[in-house]
Write a structure and sequence with these properties.
single chain, mainly beta, 9 strands, signal
Length: 125
């Protein structure tokens, strides 16, 4: 009887898990985010956030991650003192230029600049 109750509880917990809202990426997540018009990319690796844009130098900052609502936010100061922030949250996303589907939406901002919007996914490899 105990075995049946344990199996029933396990089955119900699995069914409930399928109904839960997706959680934001984990602290140690490796994330790739990108957007178009203008083109940009952000990589999160080993507590470091790097913004990559065509014809501009890459900007990196040591990242501190926090959770805001359902989003994960990595934020840090670049060598020149600007704040680089990446915010990602679970949401189906398309970059509008390819057939790729991403599991997360993304926003990146740099102090004194506009917010760039795009998509994100766990890094491959």
């Amino acid at each position: 009887m105990r075995r049946i109750i344990a199996l029933a509880a396990l089955a119900l917990s699995g069914a409930a898990a399928g109904c839960q809202t997706p959680m934001p990426p984990q602290v140690d997540a490796r994330i790739d985010a990108r957007g178009t018009e203008p083109f940009w990319a952000v990589r999160v690796r080993d507590a470091q956030v790097t913004l990559i844009r065509p014809e501009q130098p890459d900007l990196s900052a040591p990242a501190q991650r926090r959770t805001e609502g359902g989003a994960s936010v990595w934020s840090g100061r670049t060598a020149d003192g600007r704040t680089l922030t990446l915010r990602v949250w679970p949401q189906a996303c398309s970059d509008g230029m390819s057939d790729l589907a991403y599991p997360m939406a993304a926003e990146v901002s740099l102090t004194g600049r506009e917010v760039l919007k795009g998509c994100a996914a766990p890094a491959r490899g």
